[in-house]
Amino acid sequence: MASKKFKPSAKATLPFKTGNREKRQKLHIVRKKALDNTRRDERFRRRREEDKDPSLRDERLRQNVPLTLERKRVWDDVDSDTGDGLGVSVDVERLKRQKLAEDADERAQNGEVDGGDQEGSDDELDSMIDSTSDIESPPTSPKPQSSKQQKTATDRATSPTQSTTSTNLALTPSALADRFPTLFATAPSPNPKTLITTSLHSTLHNEATLLTTLFPNSVYIPRSAHRHSHKYSVREIASFATNRKYTSLIVLKEDQKKPTGLSIVHLPAGPTFHFSISNWVEGRKIPGHGRPTEHDPELILNNFRTPLGLLTAHLFRTMFPPRPEFEGRQVVTLHNQRDYIFLRRHRYVFRETKGSERNVVGPDGKEVQGVEGIRAGLQELGPRFTMKLRRVDKGIQRGSGQEWEWKGGMDKQRTKFQL
Questions:
Q1: Is the model's pLDDT at 114 over the cut of 60?
Q2: What does DSSP assign to residue 302?
Q3: pLDDT in tens, 61-93
Q4: Model pLDDT for residues 370-383, shown as the tens digit of each residue
Q5: pTM
Q6: Among candidates 325, 279, 272, 336, which has minimal Cα distance to 298?
Q7: At 71, phi and psi to the nearest 5?
Q8: Which 3 state secondary structure label does DSSP give 335?
Q9: Does residue 303 sit in helix, strand or coil?
Q10: How far is CA 48 from CA 45, 53, 109, in A?
Q11: Do the Cβ atoms of 387 and 260 come closer than 8 Å?
C-alpha cells in the first residue's frame, strides 16, 4: 500500500485484485513504479524549497532522529526519598536537583534566606546537572502540555541523548552508601590487589592470564580439580585472599571452552556481583591492535545513572589505582548503554589535525574550546568484551543466589533500564 506521507497519483490506484496471476504481477509493477515516481517528485520538490530557504533543511534534519530504545527510556515515578534505590530505575541527578529545589522552596517559604542566598541557591541548582538533560529538556512539539502529561514517543525521540555523559560518583544516595560501607569508604582506598581464578575443570588459562594485564596488581592462580586434591569453594578462596591483603576476587566462568561469566567479590565481606560475558575478543585478533604495557591505566565510567549503576561503578573504581600512570597513555573505558557494559582498552596519542579533519566536538555537537587543531588518536589494546549485570548477592555465600541484594529479570519492560 502507499505510504501515508505521499498521495499516490492516478496511475497508482489501478486495481490489482484480479484472478489472473500474471495480470496481478504486471499491475503490481506498474503501481510500484508510480509510487516511486511520486516519492521522487516529492523529494525534488522538497529540495527546491530547501534551496530557497535553508532553515527548512535545518528543521528537517533536527527532527529526523531515529527512535531507538535508548530514546524511549522511561523512569520510575518516585519522590526524592527513595532509600538506597536498588531495583528502582531513577536518575540520581534528577533526584538531587529535585531535592535541592524542594529545600530551596522550603527555605523561601520560611523566610530564612535573603535575596543573595536565594540567587546562590539557584546557581547551585543549575550546576548540579547538565542543561542538555533529556529529562528536563522541553518538548519540541509546539502543542502545550501539562506538567503531569508524559512525553510521547516523538517528543522523547527529539530529545538529546546522554549516552556520552560521564558518571558523577558524588551523587551516590546516602542510604546506598550506608548499606555498602566498604564500597563507599570515605577514607583513602588502599592500593587494589586482585586475585583471579576460574571455575572448576576450566580450560580458560589464557583468558585468565589476559585479565591480569587488564586489572592492575592482579595475580592468576589456577583452580585445581584433581580428584585427590581439595576443591576449594569461592568462600574459602575469598578467605585465603583476604588473609593475603587482596581487595577483590574474580572468578572467570566457562561454557564450551568460552568465557561466559564473571563473578567479582569485593573483599573482605562482599557483596558479590555476577556478570554474564559475551563477544569476547582477544587483543591479538583485533585489527591494528597494540601491545599493553605494565603502566596503571586511567579509568573512564560512562552513563551509570541509577543507584544500582553507581554501585556497579564504585565496584570497578575500587579495582583500579586512584592515581594512574599517565606516561603509559593507557585508558580503560566502561561504557553502559541499555544495561550492557562495554569494556575497551586503548592507548591514546595527541597529534595535530590534518587538512581534512574537523576540530573536536562535544556531546552537544559544538566544538570544544581550547583544543582547536588537536586530535586524539586511539589504538585498541584488548581484550574487549561485553558484560551484563545479572545479580548482586549479599556477602560471600556458600551457594550462589541464596540471598541477593538485587536480581535481574524482574522487570519485563523493554524501555526501562536498571543501570
A1: no
A2: E
A3: 888 888 888 888 888 877 666 666 787 888 888
A4: 777 788 889 999 89
A5: 0.75
A6: 325
A7: -85, -15
A8: strand
A9: coil
A10: 5, 9, 57
A11: no
Residue from 401, 412, 178 nearest 274 by CA: 401
Q: Which residue in this structure is represented by grid cell 589504538?
A: 379
Residues making up the chain, counted from first to last: 419
Give me the amino acid identity at 27. L
Instruction: Say how far apart CA 332 and CA 382 lie, in whole Å.
Output: 10
Q: Residue written as cell 520510575?
A: 76
Cis peptide leading into 271, omega within 30 of 0? Answer: yes
Is 186 in contact with 316 (CB distance < 8 Å)? no
Residue type, 312: T
* pLDDT tens digits along 200-243: 888 999 999 999 999 999 999 988 777 777 888 889 999 999 99
Nearest to 72 by CA among 418, 308, 408, 416: 416
98 phi/psi in degrees, rounded to 5: -65, -40
What is the distance between the alpha carbons of residues 222 and 220, in angstroms, rounded to a whole number?
Answer: 6
Q: How far apart are the first and last CA of the chain?
A: 42
- CA neighbor of 160 nearest in space, from 337, 363, 418, 361: 363
CA–CA gap between residue 346 and residue 380 (Å, rounded): 4
